[in-house]
Every structure is written in structure tokens, then in C-alpha cells.
Design brief:
single chain, binds magnesium ion, binds adenosine-5'-triphosphate, globular
């Protein structure tokens, strides 16, 4: 279903309230992102999630404006988060290659004060990292209170790429008798417990799986080969990993099924259309921060006296 021109103009003017005037029964951004939220284990099936879903919206051309509005809201919320210095927000991005992690992170966080936001990209672990437990390197990178932390890949690789290539597990120096069985089940449990611990400590966790189809990945790889400006992004190993597509999908399905919770939900974001994926992520982030009811700290009577004195001093300066 596409929107009439006048409706689209109105949407642009009203920014992140877009979903209110969309001619479907979507009332707010909470409802807009709800279809993609996974909060409990058990029934989750990846095949129930359409990679090309756009909720019938045709907003590609307008999405930049809509996103900007959302980012403005985010910027304001982030300042309050920083000023309160109580909560922190951890955003985890996982995806197959070329699904658009980098672009989504760049666009959604573009208006944010860099002091309040840290992005970490996790690649294949170093020798030092392999000599520690699998949560060590990411734990060191967790956001401080008042900050937004972004993980571009994360400890979830430990139940994804490592599961698809079990020889990686052998390189982790884990005592062999601990690896006999239930490795993945144990890791899911550890991850769930870890995320619960974060939640209890004031770190809000939101996890995004940017869900693209195998066909869309092929198109994007070909574009990287065809367009000189994109050649640098092309990697032979990415194409080799494609051969394991089904194994990855199974690993993602299992990981999401076993680690989705109300406190640390997964969002399975339809990502064949980049503009749509970015709108979904932006709305999840603003919604999450709005849910915290953030406010600038209020000033008590003693502090007010200090301010009055400071004003007098300044005005009295020669
Ligand atoms: P881009 O390709 O957009 O630059 P990227 O995240 O794909 O970003 P790469 O350097 O291409 O970065 O790939 C990082 C690689 O590191 C991925 O193949 C990923 O699976 C791998 N990796 C990340 N964490 C682990 C881990 N814990 N164990 C093994 N491999 C890992
Ligand atoms: Mg890569």
C-alpha cells in the first residue's frame, strides 16, 4: 500500500510521528516496531520473518527526513541519559555480511554527541582474547552509566560463527573435558544470565538481527564488484561464508530463540530495504530511552544558593 502524496508531505512535516498517520492500525512507534520484537524463547522461527517487509509503506525517498527527526529526538534523550548518569544502553548488532550494520549504526547515531556514545567492532579474537573466557573482551567494552554503547558484532559470534565453524572452538584453549556436550546450551544460559545481570545493574540491552535474504546479499556483493567506489568493501571470504548460509540461519534461529527475553529482547529487523531497517532501529532506540522517563537532574535548595552566589560573583567582576 503506498501513501498518497499529501499524506507523505504530512508525514515528513511530522517526523517521528509518521506511524500515526499511516493508513493502517499503527498508532505509534511502539506498535511500528512490535512485529519484529522477540521476547520469549520456544516458538521463534526465522522463516516467519519477512526480510523484505515494509508494512506496506513506500517511504524510501522520505526516509532520510523521517530518520533525521528521529535522530533529533534521540539526541535530546541521550543528553538526558548523560545528565542523569544512572542508566546505560547497550545496542548489539548482528547480521550476515552486507546486511547494513555499519550504515545503520552510522545513520541512526549520526546526531548523537560522540562523548556519550561508544562503538566497538568485534573481529576474530586475538591470542590474548582467546586466553580468556568468551565474555571477557566484550565486558571490558560495556558502556558506562549515562552512555550508549554499540557492539558491531558481539559475544553472540560465540554461538554463531564459532558454531558454524566448530574448529574455532578448539582454538579457544578450553579444557577439553569441559567441551564434551551442551556447549551451546551452556553458552545460551551464560549469555542470558549475563544480560540479566546487566539489566539488574542498570544497563538496558537491545539486540538487533538485521535480517536479509540470501538473494539480497548476492545483489549487494555484485554491486561491490560492479561499482568502483564499493570495491574496497568486497571480501573474498564473505563470498566463501555464503556457502554456509543455511548453517548460519539455523545458528541465528537457535541463538535468538534461546536468548530473547522481555528484559533483553531481540529485534529481527527486515533489512532487504535499508531505509526501512534504519527506521525500525531508530524507533526502537528512541522508544527504549523514552521508556526510561529520563529528565535532567533537578537542583536542590543548597545548589540554588550556590548558583545565586556564583551569579553575584560573575556580575560583580571588574
Ligand atoms: P565489515 O565487513 O563491514 O568491515 P565485519 O564486521 O564483517 O565488518 P570483518 O573484519 O569483515 O568485519 O569480519 C569480522 C569477522 O570476525 C567476522 O567474520 C566474524 O564472524 C569474525 N568474528 C567476530 N567475533 C568472533 C569470534 N568471537 N570468534 C570468531 N570469529 C569472530
Ligand atoms: Mg565483513
Amino acid at each position: 500500500m503506498s501513501l498518497r502524496f499529501t499524506e507523505k508531505r504530512e508525514l515528513i512535516a511530522r517526523g517521528s510521528d509518521i506511524v500515526e498517520s499511516v493508513p493502517r492500525k499503527i498508532k505509534n512507534s511502539f506498535d511500528f516496531v512490535r512485529p519484529y520484537r522477540v521476547t520469549s524463547d520456544g516458538k521463534f522461527r526465522l522463516k516467519d520473518f519477512d526480510t523484505a517487509d515494509t508494512q506496506g509503506l513506500d517511504l524510501k525517498d522520505e526516509s532520510n527526513v523521517l530518520l533525521r527527526k528521529s535522530v533529533e529526538k534521540l539526541s535530546d534523550l541521550q543528553q538526558k541519559l548523560y545528565a542523569e548518569d544512572r542508566w546505560s544502553l547497550l545496542l548489539i548488532f548482528q547480521a550476515m555480511d552486507a546486511a547494513g550494520k555499519d550504515g545503520t549504526i552510522r545513520h541512526v547515531m549520526s546526531g548523537i554527541n560522540p562523548q556519550g556514545c561508544q562503538v566497538y567492532s568485534f573481529k576474530a579474537p586475538s591470542a590474548e582474547e582467546l586466553d580468556h573466557d568468551f565474555l571477557w573482551r566484550t565486558t571490558k567494552a560495556l558502556p558506562e552509566r549515562g552512555r550508549i554503547g554499540i557492539f558491531n558484532r558481539s559475544y553472540y559470534e560465540e554461538v554463531l560463527v564459532v558454531r558454524v565453524h566448530p574448529e574455532m572452538l578448539k582454538r579457544q584453549q578450553i579444557p577439553p573435558e569441559l567441551l564434551k556436550k551442551n556447549v551451546w546450551k551452556n553458552r545460551f544460559e551464560d549469555i542470558r544470565a549475563f544480560e540479566q545481570h546487566l539489566e539488574r545493574s542498570g544497563t538496558i540491552v537491545r539486540k538487533f538481527f538485521l535480517n536479509i535474504s540470501k538473494g539480497e546479499q548476492k545483489k549487494r556483493f555484485l554491486r561491490r564488484l560492479d561499482e568502483p567506489d564499493k570495491n574496497w568493501k568486497f571480501s573474498d571470504s564473505d563470498v566463501q561464508e555464503r556457502a554456509y548460509w543455511d548453517d548460519y540461519m539455523e545458528a541465528y534461529e537457535e541463538a535468538i530463540r534461546h536468548t530473547a527475553s522481555a528484559e533483553a529482547p531481540w529485534y529481527v529487523v527486515p533489512s532487504d530495504n535499508k531505509w526501512f531497517a534504519r527506521l525500525v532501529v531508530a524507533n526502537v532506540v528512541t522508544d527504549t530511552l523514552e521508556g526510561l522517563k529520563l529528565a535532567y537532574p533537578t537542583v536542590d535548595a543548597a545548589k540554588k544558593d550556590d548558583l545565586t552566589t556564583a551569579r553575584k560573583h560573575l556580575l560583580g567582576e571588574k
